[in-house]
Amino acid sequence: MLNLEESPARLFAALGDATRLGLIKRLSNGAEQSIAQLGEELPISRQAVAKHLDVLQSVGLVRRTRRGREVLFVLEPKTVAQARRWLTQVSAQWDDALGRLKMFVESQP
Question: Which value, to the nearest 10 degrees, does the dihedral of the CA atoms of residues 80, 81, 86, 89 take?
Answer without folding.
Answer: 140
